[in-house]
Amino acid sequence: MVIEDIKLRKIDENYYELDVRGMVCPFPQVLISKALKSLTSNEKLEVFIDNPPSVREIPLSLERNGYKVERTKVDENNWKLVVEIKQRQ
């Protein structure tokens, strides 16, 4: 998997998806940060992730930076993060 091949995908009005399964940090964090910079207020980013350290650390980092993060365990090895972009200053 080449990092440049990972694409942000629009799945609904104001709702985007990013799949970073199979990657280890720092790549999921870098891709998520890049995706969030391209979104605007009141949009949401759904991230599929399977690396346990990333699942623990990324939501904490995002919350420290003012994002609202909802973490859901999809199955034994996969999680879904829904990141909400609050009003930008």
Order of strands across the main sheet: 1-2-3-5-4
SS field, number of helical segments: 2
Largest β-sheet summary: 5 strands, mixed
Radius of gyration: 12 Å
Enter the CATH topology name: Translation Initiation Factor IF3
How many structural domains? Answer: 1
The CATH class is identified as: Alpha Beta
Textual characterization of the structure:
It is a single chain. With 89 residues, the protein is an alpha+beta fold. The protein has a single domain, classed as 2-Layer Sandwich (Translation Initiation Factor IF3). It has 2 helices and 5 strands; from the N terminus they run ββαβαββ. It has helices at 27-38, 52-64; strands spanning 9-12, 15-19, 44-49, 68-73, 79-84. A 5-stranded mixed sheet has the order 1-2-3-5-4, covered by helices on one side. The longest helix is centred in the middle third of the chain and has 13 residues, at 52-64. The N and C termini lie far apart (35 Å). The mean pLDDT is 90. This is UPF0033 domain-containing protein. Residues 18-42 form the UPF0033 domain.
